[in-house]
């Protein structure tokens, strides 16, 4: 749905979402308004790179969780949240504790999880984002904590995007 030149995206991140957002960006769209609970990591990464490569800004309306936070939010050129919006990280595909829970058999060719882990590392490397953010959020989620405080350092300044007491 288009609102004042912005695409309002609500729902699951998947192949269909990627195609809708790709079409919007290819037609000159440069602002997304998000309410997304997460979804497919592979398509989240594709969307995140698309946003980064095209300098697309993101506004979180009510919530941006899981692959929305990890990939769309972090991939966007300019990031903002409405008051009381929720940005929810909970670890990533490459998180060591997660991979220990779902070990893979050693093979010459990485399996699907292994490929996604490699792609995720490349995604964060391309964006210049430290995996510490994802790793820490995953450890806190596994430990059962419900909220965390996140700060992003942006060109010699700091911006707090989410800060709620545990």
Structure notes:
This protein is α/β, with parallel strands linked by helices. The chain contains six helices and eight strands; from the N terminus they run ββαβαβαββαααββ. It has helices spanning 15-26, 41-53, 67-75, 96-101, 112-127, 132-142, and strands at residues 2-3, 6-13, 31-39, 57-65, 79-81, 86-88, 150-154, 157-162. Strands 1, 2, 3, 4, 5 and 6 form a six-stranded mixed sheet that branches. β4, α3 and β5 (79-81) form a beta-alpha-beta unit. α1 (15-26) packs parallel to α2. It is globular, with a radius of gyration of 16 Å. Residues 97-107 and 152-166 have low confidence and may be disordered.
Could you spell the SSE succession in H and E letters? EEHEHEHEEHHHEE
The stretches of 5 or more residues where confidence is low (pLDDT under 50) are: 97-107, 152-166
Mean pLDDT: 77
Structural class by sheet pairing and helices: alpha/beta
The end-to-end span amounts to 35 Å
User: Which quaternary structure do these chains form?
Assistant: single chain
Percentage of residues in DSSP E strands: 25-35%
Give the radius of gyration: 16 Å
The helix tally amounts to 6
How many individual β-strands? 8
Largest β sheet strand count, sense and barrel closure: 6 strands, mixed
Based on CA inertia axes, which overall geometry fits?
globular
* Fraction in helix: 40-55%
């Amino acid at each position: 749905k288009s609102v004042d030149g912005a695409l309002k995206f609500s729902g699951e991140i998947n192949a269909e979402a990627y195609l809708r957002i790709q079409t919007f960006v290819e037609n000159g769209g440069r602002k997304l308004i998000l309410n997304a609970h997460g979804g497919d990591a592979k398509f989240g990464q594709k969307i995140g790179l698309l946003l980064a490569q095209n300098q697309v800004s993101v506004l979180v309306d009510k919530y941006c969780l899981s692959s929305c936070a990890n990939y769309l939010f972090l991939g966007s050129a300019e990031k903002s949240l409405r008051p009381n919006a929720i940005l929810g990280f909970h670890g990533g595909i490459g998180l060591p504790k997660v991979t220990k829970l779902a070990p893979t058999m050693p093979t010459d060719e990485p399996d699907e999880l292994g490929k996604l882990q490699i792609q995720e590392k490349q995604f964060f490397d391309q964006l210049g984002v430290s995996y510490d953010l994802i790793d820490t959020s995953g450890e806190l989620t596994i430990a059962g904590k419900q909220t965390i405080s996140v700060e992003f350092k942006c060109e010699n300044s700091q911006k707090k995007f989410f800060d709620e007491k545990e």
